[in-house]
Specification:
Helix 3 packs across helix 16 and helix 6 crosses helix 7. The protein contains 16 helices and 2 strands. With 342 residues, it is an all-alpha fold.
Length: 342
């Protein structure tokens, strides 16, 4: 009976003690006649930290405003202008014809007699250079990462085209294609780069061969961050090099692959290929890409101020088209992300 009475009293007094414990410190100090203490904000964005964050964000905004908006404002406005041959100046279209340059771009884009073949040809050079050269570059990067026989030699030799000027490489390729190859393959004729039958295949070979070294160093460096414990564990389990490459290395460097693949569609519409380096301003029409076409309309012997409005509208439209394509590509690549961590 005494125990039950004690439990009953404890049950009745517990809420009171809990209530006393739940009284805030400020309320207790107020009851005692003391001034409540001020509790400092726990956020890091106060005082000097807030000033630092604001300054850094302001720097980024000012940088964007100056080096992108202000530097390109004339190009954006040119998309809504036309060249007046009488006055020799660019003038804004009237309201009824304000988007005529964009209209001309889309009309030419979807007609076979317009710029549509240029887009296809540029996509051919760009995609072949990426879809063929990039996987090969990953394989060579893995072989160099594994430090196989002559790996330092291949590292230097494959990276040399990225160091040497593109103009020097194009001259070497042109000399090889027009002097060396015809001596071996008589059917190529004397000038295969000027022959409609062989020009495009040779340019595709150029795009593939010289697109491979670009990512070699960064791929090898990223693969070197793979923990050696995983590699050693794989060896203990008897894993082959092919399985190590497919199931260990590639999943761990997938974020890098994602970033590099995002550039696949960025330059798809404006890919120029090696045309200007090889042909200068005299590229045959059956080799012309859209990037080369736009470039030679604003620079060189074929340039004219009459093309400025059209080229500005074309680049602006291509940029707007590329944005959703890039985001879709990013979403698609993230769907296949193995989410491997180390």
């Amino acid at each position: 009976m005494k125990q039950s009475k004690f439990c009953h009293e404890a049950a009745n007094t517990a809420p009171d003690s809990a209530a006393q414990m739940s009284v805030p410190a400020e309320e207790g100090e107020r009851l005692q006649g003391k001034k409540p203490r001020k509790v400092k904000n726990a956020s890091i964005f106060n005082g000097k930290a807030r000033v630092f964050v604001i300054c850094m964000l302001a720097y980024a905004v000012v940088n964007f405003a100056i080096f992108y908006v202000w530097m390109n404002i004339d190009s954006i406005l040119l998309a809504f202008k036309t060249y007046n041959g009488m006055s020799g100046e660019q003038e804004f279209y009237g309201v009824a014809h304000l988007f005529d340059n964009f209209k001309e771009f889309f009309v030419n884009l979807f007609t076979s007699s317009g710029t549509l073949p240029y887009f296809f040809r540029g996509a051919l050079y760009h995609l072949s250079g990426f879809l063929i050269a990039y996987p090969v570059s990953l394989i060579f990067s893995y072989l160099i990462y594994k430090k196989l026989f002559l790996h330092n030699f291949f590292k230097v030799m494959l990276y040399v085209p990225s160091i040497v000027s593109a103009m020097v490489i194009s001259i070497m390729f042109k000399t090889l294609a027009e002097n060396f190859l015809p001596a071996i393959f008589k059917q190529l004729g004397n000038a295969p780069l000027s022959d409609e039958t062989y020009a495009t295949p040779l340019l595709v070979i150029y795009s593939v061969f010289f697109a491979m070294p670009g990512q070699l160093i960064i791929n090898t460096s990223t693969m070197s961050t793979v923990p050696q414990e995983l590699i050693e564990y794989g060896k203990l389990e008897g894993i082959t090099m092919r399985k190590e490459f497919m199931h260990v290395v590639l999943p761990l460097v997938y974020p890098l692959i994602t970033v590099q693949c995002l550039g696949l569609f960025v330059g798809l519409f404006t890919a120029a290929g090696p045309l200007y380096a090889i042909y200068a301003e005299m590229a045959p029409d059956y080799t012309v890409t859209y990037g080369y076409y736009i470039f030679t309309r604003v620079i060189g012997r074929n340039a004219s101020e009459a093309y400025y409005g059209f080229t500005a509208a074309s680049n602006l439209a291509i940029g707007l088209i590329s944005v959703p394509i890039v985001y879709f590509t990013k979403w698609l690549l993230e769907r296949f992300d193995p989410e491997a961590e180390y």
